[in-house]
Amino acid sequence: MGTAERQRTRGIQGIQRTRETRGTPGTGSITDEHEASGSRFGEEHRELWVEEPARRRRLPDPVRTAAVRAVIIVALTLIQAMTAFLCAMAGSWLSFPMVLSSVASTVAATWGVLDVWVTRQVWNQRHGVVSVPSSTARQLRRERRRARRQARTAERSEDRIRRRGRTGQLSHS
User: Fold this and answer.
1) List of residues 6+ apart from 31 with CB closer than 8 A
2) How far are the Cα atoms of 37, 39, 49, 167 from residue 11, in angstroms, in the given order?
3) Residue 46 and residue 7: Cα distance in Å, rounded?
4) Can you tell me the distance from the alpha carbon of 141 to that of 84, in angstroms, rounded to the nearest whole number?
5) Given 3-state DSSP classes, what are the helix, strand and coil percentages for the chain, each rounded to the nearest 5?
6) Distances in Å between the alpha carbon of 46 and those of 7, 11, 49, 97?
7) What is the DSSP letter of 122?
8) Residues 113-137 pLDDT 10s
9) What DSSP state is assigned to residue 58?
10) How confident is the model at residue 116, as a pLDDT?
11) Are 32 and 26 in contact (CB under 8 A)?
12) What is the pLDDT of residues 9-49, one digit of tens each?
């Protein structure tokens, strides 16, 4: 089945679904208004919004905020550099201060992009990548495992002491 055929069947299924879910004929539903406007059941109908599953996972919040910050800084730097170039071509007195501020903005944009890279590396090291030997995630998981083991052994020893105390007693006094 080709792409065009898939779209046609998807469109027909969309009409059937709206007919089934929106009401019975004669009740003044949206389907009745659609049929009254002159469109036929067999016509192609495309949904306005089709949900598709994401191909990749979302970025973690700190990485996403750093990326947004970097994009804004880079965009402003490009606008500023273009304005400085146009001022220089026009021979305006504003060109020299604009060139100086463009250099400073370039440094800031470089910092913003490096910030995204460093934030992503730190996030991966702390929260996700366990296969790396220097990962702190591995160390945290070891500590949690050790604490759970100690809690279990303490609980077992308390149970053992309670059981031992009852076996040798002749009375409850």
Assistant:
1) 18, 19, 22, 23, 25
2) 18, 13, 12, 77
3) 8
4) 53
5) 70, 0, 30
6) 8, 5, 9, 54
7) H
8) 999 999 999 888 887 765 666 666 7
9) P
10) 95
11) yes
12) 555 444 444 444 444 555 554 554 555 555 555 567 778 88
Torsion of CA 60, 64, 66, 70, to 10 degrees: 150
| pTM for the model | 0.47
Residue 131 CA to residue 154 CA, distance in Å, equals: 31
Cα separation, 20 vs 6, in Å, equals 21
Token code pair at residue 137: 């995630």
Task: For the beta carbon of residue 19, count every other beta carbon within 10 angstroms.
Answer: 18
Q: Would you give the end-to-end CA distance of the chain in angstroms?
A: 86
**The two three-digit tokens of residue 133, written as one number:** 């030997």
